[in-house]
Specification:
Blueprint: E1 4-9, H1 15-25, E2 29-34, H2 38-45, H3 56-63, E3 68-71, H4 74-80, E4 83-86, H5 106-118, E5 123-127, H6 135-143, E6 152-156, H7 166-171, E7 176-180, H8 184-197, E8 206-210, H9 211-242, H10 246-254, H11 275-288, H12 292-319, E9 328-332, H13 347-357, E10 361-365, H14 370-376, E11 384-386, H15 390-394, E12 399-402, H16 414-419, E13 426-429, H17 436-442, E14 445-448
Parallel strand pairs: 1-2, 1-4, 2-3, 4-5, 5-6, 7-8, 9-10, 9-12, 10-11, 12-13, 13-14
The structure holds nicotinamide-adenine-dinucleotide.
Nicotinamide-adenine-dinucleotide is lined by residues 9-15, 34-37, 40, 74, 87-90, 107, 110-111, 129-130, 159, 161, 163, 273-274.
Length: 459
């Protein structure tokens, strides 16, 4: 049995893969991941992991049962481990002051109180969840609220992995960021955590900082990434008015080495559990410090994302003769991005709901996300069908709308699909991934984002 021990509280998209990587790279550590959700823990112990990530099955199998364990015994975990990562969820608050903007810290605070209650020895507590800057101060105040002589060091080590490429991102991170108080104990704790990552991450990629910079950097990184998507999406709207082609514009712009090509693909917009929530969190923080202009600037990133989805629906309506009532529309993809089954904040949820409002019948196809899609659209069963095979999903439909950039959609036999559809047949490519010219030649009317439409109608 390994002597050194690590606990992670929260066995989600971050806790599970991150701890699996640490267990794999640090065989002398015994890594335990605990969660309040027994079904999730049972799934982590089974052959059907609770989340889909390429390479994750193999990674978990390398260490599970050897030095990687999943459990619901939170109290025991806290008692037995002195290094505790916390990666519980921090969703947007849905009630009270800050509703719709601020982070809901109830799971976070509950965890802090549990750590305090069950600790019998000094601990390093590491914020892995994304949190508002200054949360560590609240954590410290809770942990030090009892005069029991136990010392707690609170560190910030935000996770920068992207879903869909989590295993690769964890194995070869651009950087690992560790923030701490700049006291003797804080710096010592920082080094303890840095040594864990140094098992496989080159030292020059392990950044250390003061704790507030670390907390804030995570919010800022997500805000910058989302901002690029919203920026190119505003330009896609202008392209549609001017016959410019957004793909050509983003290529020309992105080849400027000062700008770079990533996150410049125009689309129906960003989704996922983090971008929107983290920007809104940043907006709320700025407003609470009286920085209203700064808050307005970042809030526009989210508003443009909503605008882009509404524009997409209006484009579909306009192209399909201003009525969708009774028409069958296949959504190709429901996950918020390719290579994940995660549908949290997926633009496809908004699009499906808006189509149903227009009285369309929606057929949803996705290789990994149908289970989550059913949950997201619960109560709308009479308007929605779920069909994994895209060919079967499109059968008898009036239109296809591409929602997720799954590679399989690029290589479909669109002639075969076209043959089985109602005519005139439409494709709305919300990710600009399919071959528009080939689909047009097949007979489709093709509408993409930020490019002139290809239609068989006379102008
Ligand atoms: N998903 C991502 O790609 C990503 C990337 C970077 C950072 N983050 C951040 O990491 C954090 C976790 O995100 P996630 O996507 O893994 O969330 P998640 O919802 O998948 O997982 C969180 C887990 O915490 C558990 N939990 C909640 N309260 C608990 C408690 N008191 N004790 C034990 N377990 C508890 C929940 O049951 C859940 O399984 C969030 O702050 C998020 O912003 C997420």
């Amino acid at each position: 049995m390994a002597e050194k021990r690590i606990l992670c509280i929260g066995a989600g998209y971050v806790g599970g893969p991150t701890m699996a990587m640490i267990a794999c790279k640090c065989p002398e550590f015994c890594v335990t991941v605990v969660d309040i959700n027994p079904e999730r823990i049972a799934a982590w112990k089974s052959d059907h992991l609770p989340i889909y990530e390429p390479g994750l099955d193999e990674l978990v199998r390398t260490s599970r049962g050897r030095n990687l364990f999943f459990s619901t015994e939170i109290e025991k975990g806290i008692r037995e481990n002195d290094i505790i990562f916390v990666s519980v969820n921090t969703p947007t608050k849905s009630f009270g002051l800050g509703a719709g903007l601020a982070a809901d810290l109830q799971y976070w605070e509950k965890t802090a109180r549990q750590i305090l209650e069950f600790s019998q020895s000094p601990k390093i507590v590491i914020e892995k969840s994304t949190l508002p800057v200054k949360t560590a101060l609240a954590m410290e105040r809770i942990l030090n609220s009892r005069e029991n002589g136990i010392h707690f060091d609170v560190l910030s080590n935000p996770e920068f992995l992207a879903e869909g490429s989590a295993v690769g991102d964890l194995e070869l991170p651009d950087r690992v960021l560790i923030g701490s108080r700049e006291t003797r104990e804080g710096l010592q704790a920082r080094e303890t955590i840095a040594e864990i990552y140094a098992h496989w991450v080159p030292r020059e990629r392990i950044l250390t900082s003061n704790i507030w910079s670390s907390e804030l950097s995570k919010l800022v990184a997500n805000a910058f990434l989302a901002q690029r998507i919203s920026s190119i999406n505003t330009i896609s709207a202008l392209c549609e008015k001017t016959e410019a082609n957004v793909a050509e514009v983003s290529c020309a712009v992105g080849m400027d080495s000062r700008i770079g090509p990533k996150f410049l693909n125009a689309s129906i917009g960003f989704g996922g559990s983090c971008f929107k929530k983290d920007i809104l969190n940043l907006v709320y923080l700025c407003r609470s410090y009286g920085l209203n202009e700064v808050a307005d600037y970042w809030e526009m990133v989210v508003r443009i994302n909503d605008y882009q989805q509404e524009r997409f629906i209006q484009g579909m309506l306009g192209a399909m003769f201003n009525t969708l009532a009774g028409k069958k529309i296949a959504l190709f993809g429901f996950a918020f991005k390719a290579n994940t089954g995660d549908t949290r904040e997926s633009p496809a949820i908004t699009i499906a709901r808006r189509l149903i409002e227009e009285r369309a019948i929606v057929v949803i196809s996705d290789p990994q996300a149908l289970k989550n899609a059913r949950r997201d659209l619960a109560g709308l069963e009479e308007h929605v069908h779920y069909v994994e095979d895209p060919y079967a999903a499109a059968e008898g439909c009036h239109a296809i709308a591409v929602m997720t950039e799954w590679a399989i959609y690029k290589d479909l036999d669109f002639q075969k699909i076209y043959n089985g559809m109602e005519k005139p047949a439409f494709i709305f490519d919300g990710r600009n991934i399919i071959d528009h010219r080939a689909c047009f030649d097949t007979g489709f009317n093709v509408f993409s984002i930020g490019k002139p439409p290809l239609t068989h109608f006379e102008r």
